[in-house]
Records
---
Amino acid sequence: MHPLNKLPLSALRAVEAIGRLGTLAAAADELGVTSGALSQRLAKAEARLGVPLFLREATGLRATEACERILPRLSLGMEHLASALELLEDDETTLTVTVAPIFASRWLIWRIHRFHELEPTISVRVEPRVDMVDFRNSEVDVGIRVGTSPGRHVSASKLLDQRVFPVCSPEIALRVHKPEDLLKLPIIRENDDLFGWKTWLANTGLSVPPAVPGPTYADASLCLDAAMTGQGVFMAWETLASDAIKAGQLVAPVPGRCETGQSYWFVAHPRSAKKSKTVKFRRWLEAELMQSVIEWRSGGD
């Protein structure tokens, strides 16, 4: 019997996904099946092969030694299968982009029409999501990520270094004459996090006091909205707040913008990076960000 006749492709996909992701729930979500169905596939695969592939632990599934030996080749095989299908379905008319929801809503959505005007034959599908897509097992073409590195198994280019600065409503700004005045106002937090404040204040010779009043929201977009409505001061990213400043909804009450050590990255699977639609979108994105930077920093910050 040919070795591939021992197991259906669905079982091999199940083993590979579970081994790579570590839990039934994550693998089931990626493959679009229930955890129960995936568990049955795994049980049948182990029964057919006659060896245990995973150890059931409280934190999830851990690959056995036998499974660890085959997982790299299984993953490589799935990549080759995906590449083969792409040769038949190489669609240069649709580009799927994954990006953080706040970047999509505060910057990208206001400019994407210009790409459509420039490349009317390419339809861009934007997928706002906070998790990091594994391009090896996804239909997503490209992504825009924020972090100290772009991640693994991707073709990446740096778009922009992230900078932050305090913003507030025009009414609140009337109470701010120097950096020290910011600490007399409520500070708007994202998930109790004072992201960027320590670094920004350190650049001005100040530090975050032990207890600072202010509201907390679970989303940076809500934090920006809270700042617009006069609820306090928020340490915002340039890409997210600068359009609101241009529209007069927010004000930067004191000068100075501080790098966070993180950057924006354009990422794609290596086999997708050189496709015409990918290259065209990347070049457009770079040009748009360059224009935005010129506008943001024209005041000398």
---
Amino acid sequence: MFAFILQRLIQAVIVMITVAFIAFMLFQYVGDPVVFLLGQDATPEQIRELRADLGLDKSFIVQFGSFLGNAVQGEFGLSLRQGAKVSRLLAERFPATFELAFVAASIALLVGIPMGVYAALRRGSFLSQVFMTISLLGVSLPTFLIGIALILIFAVWLGWFPSFGRGDVVQIGWWSSGLMTAKGWHHIVLPAITLAIFQLTLIMRLVRAEMLEVLRTDYIKFARARGLSNRAIHFGHALKNTLVPVMTITGLQLGGLIAFAIITETVFQWPGMGLLFIQAVTFADIPVMAAYLCMIALIFVVINLVVDLLYFVVDPRLRIGGKGH
């Protein structure tokens, strides 16, 4: 167990150093921060002084070491567009993105798993075919098109939900929550559904495929021979084993939702990290871009590490294999 954890931690550190290096290269090849800060009319003396203050006159290795040390402390300098600390900007936007991803993941799980189980157990039924058609549309249609369609139908035509913004929020320390107000829930419905649809269809198809595979195994046939009821076989044995591989996808899904909420946040003008990143790209705000890249990578690494550990605990074959080495 210790060797397994150590191996995963070493891999995580290597990944983060690699991502930090890629983020650092943004400063080298995507514009010059000195020009952004001083403007085109700056004198050579002003440019030299600012480059010395920012440490840009030092060697590449020294600059990367300084960047890596600051990144470990969560410091990425000042935003070139807003003039505020990047860490503070991300901290202000993170709650909105996390709550959107959390609600979307909950929708995907609570709807996708039952749909997948039903589609596996009732393969020939009309409703099962409807589910498979919906899943095909969910995988095929781009997120921005789904979001625009939902806005057109439920915000413009029916007027049931607002089309942009986060609504009222409650401040709890540094965390701002929209899930504690009625307007907050009202505003999050459409963007959460938009973000959840692809993940929902992915989970549904995965659960269906895994469920069908498990139902063909010998121990399910043995359970039927013992006279167990279909309910006990389907939900006590088959579903339990089906959810083991689904757990990996489900865990990484939250990281994916946070990372890929950019399009949804742009369509609905949701004040999260994705919208902040799009604005940073528009204005070539390199510190924000680099910080966002490192933060998303850290989220993926942490979630992947947790999923690996849970998988190790749940699946006894990994523990047996680990002892054999």
---
Amino acid sequence: MMHYLLMLKSDEHPELGPPPAELMAAIAEHGAAMAQAGVLISTAGLAPAPMGRRLRLEDGRTTPVPAREQIDAYALIKAVGDDEAADLAGQFLALHAKHWPGWQGEAEVRALFGAEGA
């Protein structure tokens, strides 16, 4: 088993308001099932991009830069390989499609170096 970081990304969409309660309940239920199966290590939603900071190091100087994308949430999971990790990410996207009409975004799946085995 390898460890993967799933990042759920979207453009800011203030017109949609906060995530619906139905989506949050579905995510909680799905996360509990994944944890019970030993697949989910950690997950959380993130504050909106304007509430965070992004810094860039260039030519030895650190300067603030505007965020180009918003990471809405993350999940740290265990999966057999890239295909299984991508399938798990797709499940989170499917929950959004079902419970938050109008939301558009993407999931990025990245393997963690040195995090094999459990």
